[in-house]
Amino acid sequence: MYYELDNGITAPQGFLTAGVHCGIKKAKKDLALIYSAVPAVAAAVFTTNRVVAAPVMVDKIQLGKTHGIQAIVINSGNANACTGERGLNDAWTVLRATARSLGISEDSVLVSSTGVIGQYLPMGKILVGVDQAVPALGTEGSADAAYAIMTTDTFPKQAALRVPLEGTEVTIGAIAKGSGMIAPNMATMLAFVTSDAAIAPEILQHALRQAADRSFNRISVDGDTSTNDMVVMLANGLANNRPITSVQGASYQQFYAAMEYLLVKLAKMVVVDGEGATKLVEVRVVGAPNEETAVRAARSIANSNLVKTAIHGEDANWGRVLAALGYSGISFDAEQVEISFGHVPILRKKYVIDFSEEDAKEVLRQKDITITVALNLGSAEASFWTCDLSKEYVAINANYRS
Amino acid sequence: MYYELDNGITAPQGFLTAGVHCGIKKAKKDLALIYSAVPAVAAAVFTTNRVVAAPVMVDKIQLGKTHGIQAIVINSGNANACTGERGLNDAWTVLRATARSLGISEDSVLVSSTGVIGQYLPMGKILVGVDQAVPALGTEGSADAAYAIMTTDTFPKQAALRVPLEGTEVTIGAIAKGSGMIAPNMATMLAFVTSDAAIAPEILQHALRQAADRSFNRISVDGDTSTNDMVVMLANGLANNRPITSVQGASYQQFYAAMEYLLVKLAKMVVVDGEGATKLVEVRVVGAPNEETAVRAARSIANSNLVKTAIHGEDANWGRVLAALGYSGISFDAEQVEISFGHVPILRKKYVIDFSEEDAKEVLRQKDITITVALNLGSAEASFWTCDLSKEYVAINANYRS
Fold first, then answer.
1. B306 at the A interface (CB within 8 A)?
2. What is the pLDDT of residue A396?
3. What is the pTM of this model?
4. Domain range holding A199?
5. Partner of B197 at 20 to 30 A CA spacing, among A234, A317, B39, B383?
6. What is the largest CA-CA distance in chain A?
7. Which residues does chain B have within 8 Å of residue A331's beta carbon, measured at their own beta carbons?
8. B315 touches A at CB < 8 Å
9. Cβ neighbours of B347 in A, within 8 Å
């Protein structure tokens, strides 16, 4: 549908990135830098956790001053969360060093961290890392940056695509990290999105809010949310499209649709890489009275440990799906509910169950499984993505700090 | 504190029970009968799941007619949930057969089921079971009944105690089953409580509601709630105490305190027997502005897969506790929070962390662990009980139906 490109956040014009190893982690790149040749319009969404890491506090202050952002510096291996006054000072120091090294205004830099909570940043290493990253900036650096922000992720996540827009073209790219519980507590969900589109700041913020709600906020590895989660988008205008200044009209719609598509793609990568995940599960609730109800129902099913273990065991245990729907808090008539696993109808109206275990098993043997739940109450729908719950998940999380 | 007795729900005067094998399950007792020599005042709390099993619907109708109940018939192995009209008819048929066999009024019988969802009751077997259970009734049958209601539980759960009351004595006994996710979807949380106390129906209902809220509603194996959960209490008055007719006064307070103590004891047994559990974890939130806030905070921490896997790995990962507090939805100041594991202070105010990993490890090596979280906002507190999350949990739930 879209023309997809290889080079992630450096696909849009004017973006340079780097990923270097500064020694926070033993043998893995652990510091990423994203730079735009010109100040870019910025938008961001942050964790809703009441416990907020230092970089999140700093970025909220930065974005309160201006939406013109030119660089983002990100470290993995240490979350700089629950570090009090000293953690805040550390975040500001990293930010200022980055501005100095790049020769840009301090007001145009954002900072981000992911990793272990409650330990102070190893400042010496990070400041050396910043100085290494600046000369390493390049248009081929997206994969390095995607790699440098990883924690327990097993593969780097990036994607980019081109959107035709009123006779011209804009490009959108993104990198993300997740794992843990998507929105893991140690392992934080981070995503950075770049574009060369010309777009007004409030329109970009509106688009990012909605696209994040329909992608990263609709995935779940284990339902926990982190102190450090953030999605930041920069749009530098170098595509020279007629600026998007309203949510009305075709150009916004086209740009937004592409953005949502890209973010959903990244979000699904995050789920696939969920700790211990062996299957990607889409929970699709249809026939809902409104989107909010559909999301609530889908989330409840996707977060159920019992559903997730059943999928892991390739067991068509529709009773667990129905029970999770039952405690989701939405109103529905259980006798009207229909459930399918893949293309196989499992539960029909009035509790009629008549399916071949063979057919169900064939669906559940796949790596990519859709559970469709029809409420038969309206015409709204929503999807939520999750993974199965495996013994590996337990093994990874029982000893994360070690 | 209380004089504890051995024989569970037959400890109070006038109660007889039986547990028999009627063939729903291959080789395990699967049908229990509880009988009071005289009609008893009944109280009950039921699942809040929107999907409600047939026996729950039937019992709500029964209790709407009268609070004089003389028998409860319970089967394991089949939940009679999501079975529509036919399931309802089956539940009524079991209830009527029990009344007939005992020679008592149909209006004085309750029915309960636990097991697999979406399959019809094997009526032939159950009706034979009822006829076997009636002559088997006896004052030594509590353990048999506790055994007969088990599904994936690994041990039967019963307890009883004697309460001095204004110069006389009343006795309270209980059996319970849980496992799965305490309030498991297939494995349902059931508890049956008997007493020879004389108490007014509305006072008994009030007491049961509150005691259940502070015991079975404060445990979690995996956060799922079932279609079949119920706690039913019968009080037959044979102790000849001066009837408890008000929540004011010492006799209600003494009776209630003993009841809460007994139900918490049973609830903890359910957690200890949680699928794959190797540790009992009490999450105690203190210094809350009110009890509701304390419960909400404690529940969020107790339900976190990340906290539960960390405990399983004997890892003093206080960051996960704080993160779960952060998304609980309560208001608090993170810098004021203190966290202890057992007697070892881990996190102090203003994020001061200064503890010996050795001391923490020693606490976490125990089978019985208390995590205390001080909000330093007020004087209310609440406990929530959970277990660790192990690979065994995944193994059990990946293949429940098989």
1. yes
2. 66
3. 0.81
4. 3-270
5. B383
6. 69
7. 50
8. yes
9. 82, 118
The CA distance from B10 to B98, in Å, is 19
Q: How would you class A136 by CB atoms within 10 Å of its CB: exposed for 0-12, middle for 13-18, buried for 19 or more?
A: middle
> What local confidence, expressed as pLDDT, does residue A54 receive?
95
Q: Judge if B251 and B368 occupy the same domain.
A: no
Q: Tokens at residue A255, please?
A: 């740009």
Verify that A217 and A299 share a domain, yes or no.
no
Angstroms from B63 CA to nearest CA on chain A: 23
A226 touches chain B (CB under 8 A): yes
Residues A256 and A307 occupy one common structural domain: no
Using the beta-carbon criterion (under 8 Å), do B317 and A351 form an inter-chain contact? Answer: no
Residue A193, pLDDT above cutoff 60: yes
pLDDT higher at A224 or A306: A306
Residue A312: which of B224, B304, B398 has the nearest Cβ? B398
A336 touching B (Cβ < 8 Å): no
CATH number of domain containing B139 = 3.60.70.12
Q: What interface predicted TM-score (ipTM) does this complex get?
A: 0.71
In a domain, A275, yes or no: no
Contact A18, A144 (CB under 8 A): yes
The residues of B annotated with a catalytic role in the active site are 188
Q: What is the pLDDT of residues B21-45, one digit of tens each?
A: 999 998 899 999 999 999 999 999 9
Pair B91, B160 in one domain: yes
Q: For B340, phi and psi rounded to 5 degrees?
A: -120, 145
Closest CA to A386 of A156, A223, A231, A229: A223
For residue B319, list chain A residues with Cβ-Cβ distance below 8 A.
79, 81-82, 116-118, 185-186
Q: Which residue of B has its CA nearest to A353?
A: B118
